[in-house]
Amino acid sequence: MKKEVCTQVKKNKKKKTHVPFRLNMLFFMVFVLFSALILRLGIVQIVYGDDYRREIERTEEITVNNPVPRGKMLDRNLKVMVDNEPLNAITYTRKQGTKTSEMLETAEKLAVLIEKETNKVTERDKKDFWILRNPELAEKKITKKERIKVSENEMTEADLYKIQLSRITEEELKSLDSELEVLAIYREFSSGYALTPQIVKNDGVSTEEYATVSEHLDSLPGVGITTDWKRAYTFDKTLKSVLGKVSSSEEGLPSESLEYYLARDYSRNDRVGKSYLEAEYEDVLQGQKAKVKNVTDKAGNVIESTTITEGSRGKDMVLTIDMDLQLATEQIIEKQLKEKKSFGNTQFLDRAFVVMMDPSTGEVLTMAGKQYGKNPKTGKSEIQDFALGNITTSYAMGSTVKGATVLTGYQTGAIQPNSYWYDTKIRIKDTPPKGSYKDFGNINDLTALKVSSNVYMFRTAIKIAGGNYVPNEPLSINQSAFSTIRTSFNQFGLGVRTGIDLPNEMVGFKGTETNPGKLMDLAIGQYDTYTPMQLAQYVSTIANGGNRMKPHLVKEIRKPVDDNNQLGPIVEEVSPVVLNKLEMKDEWVQRVQKGFHMVAQEQGGSAYIYLGNKKYESSAKTGTAQAFYDGPNRKKYDEPQDTMNLTLVGYAPSEKPEVAYAVVVPWAYQGHSGHSMNKEIGAAILDKYFELKEERAKGKTTEQSVDTKVDHTEEE
């Protein structure tokens, strides 16, 4: 028993000796772990503390789109028509946390270094700036009663601001005269988005200004220097209205299209096409913007910038226009206008138009228009570009439409090829007689086109209307004949939009009266009005055998020039589009083609004197329309003034037409005799077309021609 007790005591002692050892080991391990943790925290705080603090303070990632230059426009022979002219520019980029006082301070410093125009500073700009400069005085312009109304929600702070603006006096605004440059600069500073460069000045930045600002950039936070651009037109007075305009950096997005562009990731100060080709092909010319992602801290400072997309200049557009032919055509028109204005009965003559196009493809080779107008600076009369008039103005075109009348007669069964009518004056009871310029006797359809018989067209129209003409008796007609003839004319492009790739194309005007006399006028082109472009589409439809081609000004779209200044590859080629085919027999169209050929190539044809006996063989149809003067000076006259419109349509060569054209000379002269400006222009433009063709076939170039290498500095 005693032995067992002793043994138990020894065991207890042995157990007691192990407990402290284990506790010590546990304490030691805890100590080591705490030491490692403290060491780790020390490393994180001391070594990486700043990095982690910046990481924690990062609050926003902002993607900024930087604009790129627009694409060029070239003519069909790759001559540059529209380019981008480089400009020295001074910019300002506002940080998110930039205070108004900081922008003002920078604007004051920059105003000392550059000259900034102040003519765009508005009265509202001045009032806003005055309040900014004089906060205490501005505060005194608000009464206690008005403050109470705000607290009682009867007025808003915005209402108070309007009151402040209204109470600023002229004398107070005059106190800003010495600070107008600062105001103009501040105005640019505050108009842009945060982190988006805003143009402060890009027009007329002198080398000295550019260098001075560059030297002081450290003391001008947000200010930078760069190279900007503006649109440059190689031919300043040619086709400028058709090419269109681009908004300036100050204008930015047009207000009427603001939502449209903002939804397409544009910035408010982006430059965009405002009109015509620049606007119509904005998606092509604008290019791919450079996208930069900026990471900012809580203070708005950019701590990291990453380029997401490099961006690329807008694609280049090759137009269908032949600039050599365009320029020559414009010179021909100007010469004719100056010559014919010296005639005694041409007081209303002030404009003329020419459209030339490929009848097989619809490619517009020239779209020339000239008119007399006043120079806005000098107030003197001068000849100005009016190419847009080819699609935005319409006139009675006269006998040029008789080809459509004859074909409508065939289609309706009113006449057959080789049908005869006796050409003598039409005499309807109680109405003035209507006839050709002379009686031609018994003639068929071909002779009617050749000599431009009115009576043949009158009789055809009466037959279309189901009328039974008896001399000196009343004449009743089916009113639907107006619709029948107009619908037929529409097939040729007369009285409908041509589909040209330009906005704001007009349709023309339809007469509203429906008596027999007006139906006869419609048949000879003296009732409804058409545009010069419609007339060109009409004759092209006859020239190519019956296909109404969609006219277009863009031939192809190319990638921007490469680093070697070579034209980029073709991205898209505009294919010919047939809008409709005439619902008529081919032999009918060929019959009218023969009549047009007789007009230009046979003795007695109305255009033979001017177009016969040429190296090339052409077909044509002349037109003279009795009209009323409806020009800019019409309000000077108490009564409508009678005038004559002159027109000419045609194509060449007659067998395989390469070019179709329309010449329109509104209000050419008064009275029944005058000049033949339409025919003289028609002959001259065809001569020029074949002259250029011959020169190019021999490998020659004209003064306006260039090789395929396009130089950026060509317009500088």
TrEMBL record:
Pfam families: PBP_dimer, Transpeptidase. It is an enzyme of class 3 (hydrolase). Residues 353-686 form the Penicillin-binding protein transpeptidase domain. One of its GO terms (molecular function) is serine-type D-Ala-D-Ala carboxypeptidase activity. The keyword Membrane applies. Pathway: Cell wall biogenesis; peptidoglycan biosynthesis. It catalyses: Preferential cleavage: (Ac)2-L-Lys-D-Ala-|-D-Ala. Also transpeptidation of peptidyl-alanyl moieties that are N-acyl substituents of D-alanine. Its EC number is 3.4.16.4. GO terms for cellular component: plasma membrane. Keywords: Cell membrane, Cell shape, Cell wall biogenesis/degradation, Membrane, Peptidoglycan synthesis, Transmembrane, Transmembrane helix. This is serine-type D-Ala-D-Ala carboxypeptidase. SUPFAM superfamilies: beta-lactamase/transpeptidase-like, Penicillin binding protein dimerisation domain. The chain crosses the membrane at residues 21-48. It is found in: Cell membrane; Membrane. The lineage of its organism: Bacteria, Bacillati, Bacillota, Bacilli, Bacillales. It comes from the Bacteria. Residues 67-305 form the Penicillin-binding protein dimerisation domain. It is a single-pass membrane protein. The keyword Nucleus does not apply. Residues 696-716 are annotated as: Disordered. Belongs to the transpeptidase family. PANTHER family: PEPTIDOGLYCAN D,D-TRANSPEPTIDASE (PTHR30627), PEPTIDOGLYCAN D,D-TRANSPEPTIDASE MRDA (PTHR30627:SF2).
